Amino acid sequence: MKFTAWEVRKKQEKRYLKALKKLRRFILHLIDKDDDLPQILNHLETIAKSKELDRWANRYAYTFVTGLQEENARTWRQAAAKSSQGQRMYNALQKTLRGPVGDRVQELIESNAQYIKSIPQTAAKELVQFTASKAYADNRNTYTADKFKGLTAGLTEKHAKLISRTETAKAHAALTQARAESIGVDWYIWHTCEDQRVRSAHRILDGVLCRFSDNPHPELLAGKADRGAYSPGNIYNCRCYAEPVIEWSLIQWPMRVHSAGRITRINKRDFEKQFGKIPNPYETIEQYS
Ligand SMILES: [Zn+2]
User: Fold this and answer.
1) Where do the H-state alpha helices sit in 31-50?
2) Which of 63, 64, 72, 276 could form a disulfide linkage to 175, CB 3.0–4.6 angstroms apart?
3) Which of 34-48, 124-138, 206-220 has the highest mean predicted lDDT (pLDDT)?
């Protein structure tokens, strides 16, 4: 019953990456090859304080988050259409847009805009830190504006990719969760991308029933150092995604279920013994709509 539609969309990730690269080009464009360190820091400060960056970051964050939000909404509509009472589900979802989901969208726009705006400042800080390092002291005579350019922004290709993947997955996860919670859906299935690059700590969670109110500590489950409890997509470079469970009749028992730090394989009867009657989202939808 895998729902590929819940996966994070590549398109948004690429858009984020493109925006970061654009910012990087803009920063590099202002740095002249004869600039010395104070001049470069000066440029970075000018960019950080500029109205253009402010406007651009706000506009970009708005487009990014609303784009994700539209795709997320489409996925929910598809899920609702597959369920036995799609229309009721759809109506309830429409209402949540004006409530908690709308608030979450606003928060995401603001935090992403803030993040983009902070990049030139972060670049300046990193440059200052670097010039205090031994590597720099040993080679200071050979440092030119070109070499400084190479260091600028922590915005290497690899880093920009990491940021865009992580931020896209995080925003997508936040929207999925906000929507699920707004209609009283707590259970979700953890899905990985099922390829070689999946973390071992996430691989053991693939296909496991979890709750937003009791997220697993994936690293602890794998016998590694704890990185906290989180849902899919909420750690750097994670491509996993949550599939909220709305149609319980589609669940194939026995299932592996996570609860209070343990994963156990149980059948429907034991599930009900442990967690109470199988949730009926249509009952909760009545309450929430
Ligand atoms: Zn993952």
Assistant:
1) 37-49
2) 72
3) 206-220
